[in-house]
Design a protein that fits this description.
Blueprint: H1 16-21, H2 69-94, H3 108-116, E1 123-125, H4 131-136, H5 141-149, H6 158-161, H7 172-186, E2 193-198, H8 205-216, E3 221-227, E4 230-231, E5 234-235, E6 256-260, H9 264-279, E7 285-290, H10 309-316, H11 320-331, H12 336-358, H13 378-401
């Protein structure tokens, strides 16, 4: 008996043609493309600019509308007065009436724009270079310079002015700003905190901790990085290999932007958007303003050791004050009389500052021992009594000579 007949069954083949002929009900749906997690976070590839260096306006932009012209006139006034304050403070340092002064000349658009975008109820967290920003906010210039004069406190009342003490350690103000902003949000207030940062501070751990905390807890903070190209003598190329400092925001989920920091119109437009973003409860915002420090790091710095005169001179052609003045003149809202009036106001401001700084402050030597500890230690008490005895002996000697 032969083997049973086995009917061969043709193999099932799957060809592209067969798949196309298959019923729609048997076809597997295509996997949707994953959303780009960086969408809306990355800065534009080139810094936002609304004015050419000569003050010629560029085409308007829907994403960054131009601020009202009256606001720009006020910005011009504060920038001119701020620069005169800055040069006067530099002169006071050379005369020995200040211990040190870090100039912000050349960064007027950032200094004034940063405070002009805020409400009085908002908070500012400055570095040691923001004296011009604080006077532009309306703080007493003598109180602003008190710290740099050598006093033990910042001079002004932070609680009254909503302005933190000027911060000398790099980037610690980032953590302070994030914490205060979160606390204000937690209590139901729409306060925004703006913190000024230098490019060198972005290499510090506190910068990363502050930005990360603000991002996680959606704290309403604007981080304004003034990239003036040098961290004292260290150039930006030795600070980071990132495409821009603004690109650092994407790693924390923070929307970022870069702006021409010597274009006052663009600076204020970008800041207005960032502050509105934070105030609306959408979390922090990071801005990198490309600018330049025209003067040495401080009066103790020799800038010729790390940059040449040609580089500094090239940046004079990008002067933010001249740029805004040319634009406002072309708009017909600024003329010779108005420019002269602002210059006269600036000179009067500087003269008043000189006169007031000539007045020696009355200092109680025993105040040196105040606020060192909540409860003075025995050693501190002993030291205070020694000083008290020396002062009494000196007074007795003066009375005897008389």
């Amino acid at each position: 008996m032969g083997p049973p007949h086995v009917q061969e069954v043709p193999a099932v083949t799957t060809t592209p043609q067969a798949v196309r002929r298959a019923s729609p009900r048997t076809r597997r749906p295509a996997t949707p493309a994953a959303e780009d997690p960086s969408a809306g976070l990355l800065p534009q590839s080139t810094p936002v600019r609304l004015l050419d260096p000569d003050g010629t306006p560029l085409p308007p932009r829907d994403d960054y509308p131009e601020p009202p012209v009256e606001t720009l006139r006020e910005m011009y006034r504060r920038m001119v007065v701020g620069r005169r304050f800055d040069t006067q403070a530099t002169a006071l340092t050379k005369q020995g009436r200040l211990a040190v002064y870090p100039s912000a000349r050349g960064q007027e658009a950032c200094q004034v724009g940063g405070v002009l975008a805020l409400r009085d109820s908002d908070w500012v967290f400055p570095t040691y270079r923001e004296s011009m920003a604080l006077t532009a906010r309306g703080l007493d210039p003598v109180e602003v310079l008190t710290l740099l004069r050598g006093d033990w406190h910042c001079g002004y009342d932070p609680a009254v002015t909503h302005t933190a003490p000027q911060c000398t350690p790099l980037a610690t103000q980032c953590v302070h700003a994030a914490g205060l902003a979160y606390g204000e949000w937690y209590q139901g207030r729409d306060t925004v905190a703006l913190t000024f940062i230098g490019d060198g501070a972005t290499s510090e751990g506190d910068f990363h901790e502050g930005v990360n905390f603000a991002a996680v807890f959606k704290a309403p903070v604007v981080f304004l990085v003034q990239n003036n190209k040098y961290a004292i003598s260290v150039p930006l190329s030795r600070q980071t290999a990132a495409p821009s400092l603004a690109h650092k925001g994407v790693g924390y989920g923070v929307p970022s932007e870069q702006v021409d920091g010597n274009d006052p119109v663009a600076v204020l437009a970008v800041l207005n958007r960032a502050v509105a973003h934070a105030r609306a409860g959408r979390g922090p915002y990071l801005i990198e303003a490309h600018t330049y420090r025209m003067e040495p790091h401080t009066n103790a710095d020799d800038q010729t050791r790390y940059r040449d005169a040609d580089e500094v001179e090239a940046w004079r052609d990008r002067d933010p004050i001249a740029r805004l003045e040319a634009y406002l003149r072309a708009r017909g809202v600024l003329d010779d009389a108005a420019v002269a009036a602002v210059a006269e106001e600036a000179e009067a401001y500087a003269a008043t500052l000189r006169r007031r700084m000539d007045e020696q402050p009355t200092v109680d030597p025993l105040s040196l021992f105040d606020h060192v500890y909540a409860e003075p230690t025995p050693q501190l008490i002993e030291q205070r009594e020694l000083v008290r005895a020396e002062l009494a002996a000196a007074a007795d000697d003066e009375d005897g000579d008389a």
